[in-house]
């Protein structure tokens, strides 16, 4: 049973549809990325899922039960880390966390244990007693994530957690997300960074104009484009000789000489990994001396362009 089931949620602002019949599910230990440009509807979708924003239509189930903010049982399963920070800047990270454990009504012993655990999880243990005002933006964001983890949620929802953070904090955030997923937490992660979605997420939903244009693993999404893997050969001598040899090789769709690149020839294949052994054998049999081989796969940028006709980064 999925930890999160989102079923046709919709939000209207006047005439405009911010989120349009959005559906997806997330399993235990799975990281699901909602990828879309600014204004795609990511924050609106998340706010409806968490329950801080009313839905105009649709259902959300968490842990198999219909979720509403009034339902304490399903609420206890969710850890929500919004874009806005909710921290006290004049006290330390540890004191901020202690405040939230009191809010959750945790016992002293449980609070002490959970505070250490979440500080470790986000890599802030060594700065835990410093005032938050001395933190970088990225460290403050990590503390915000720590707060979302205090009650051991089964579903962690992160709204663009790496926007405007330093590279060190960004890496720490990505590492903590991976570790939490490894412990079985289901993760909903929104981002407009293609590389993050590719690196982190098991499955990705591409959101644009409030609608889910496509979803799947990176490989499935890339397959939608119909664009092929590129196997780039650097060859000795005249590359023209390599062209007919590659064209005749099994699994090769099209062969192209790269403009300006001395001795570079590209073979387009459906699946480079599957085709590689036969391709190399054909090249050797054809007497082509290869200096190097590189595989380039189409990326999510190409997928977004294919689906929407626009670039992901405007
Ligand atoms: N309170 C509101 N009233 C009217 N329109 C809104 C409101 N909040 C959001 N919108 C509109 O809904 C659409 C989706 O916005 P949303 O903030 O969910 O996008 P997003 O993908 O999270 O983008 P961002 O990364 O910029 O936050 C946008 O067109 C936005 O202008």
TrEMBL record:
<protein>
    <submittedName>
        <fullName>ABC transporter ATP-binding protein</fullName>
    </submittedName>
</protein>
<dbReference type="InterPro" id="IPR027417">
    <property type="entry name" value="P-loop_NTPase"/>
</dbReference>
<dbReference type="InterPro" id="IPR003439">
    <property type="entry name" value="ABC_transporter-like_ATP-bd"/>
</dbReference>
<dbReference type="Pfam" id="PF00005">
    <property type="entry name" value="ABC_tran"/>
</dbReference>
<dbReference type="InterPro" id="IPR017871">
    <property type="entry name" value="ABC_transporter-like_CS"/>
</dbReference>
<dbReference type="GO" id="GO:0005524">
    <property type="term" value="F:ATP binding"/>
</dbReference>
<keyword id="KW-0547">Nucleotide-binding</keyword>
<dbReference type="InterPro" id="IPR003593">
    <property type="entry name" value="AAA+_ATPase"/>
</dbReference>
<keyword id="KW-0067">ATP-binding</keyword>
<dbReference type="GO" id="GO:0016887">
    <property type="term" value="F:ATP hydrolysis activity"/>
</dbReference>
<feature type="domain" description="ABC transporter">
    <location>
        <begin position="4"/>
        <end position="234"/>
    </location>
</feature>
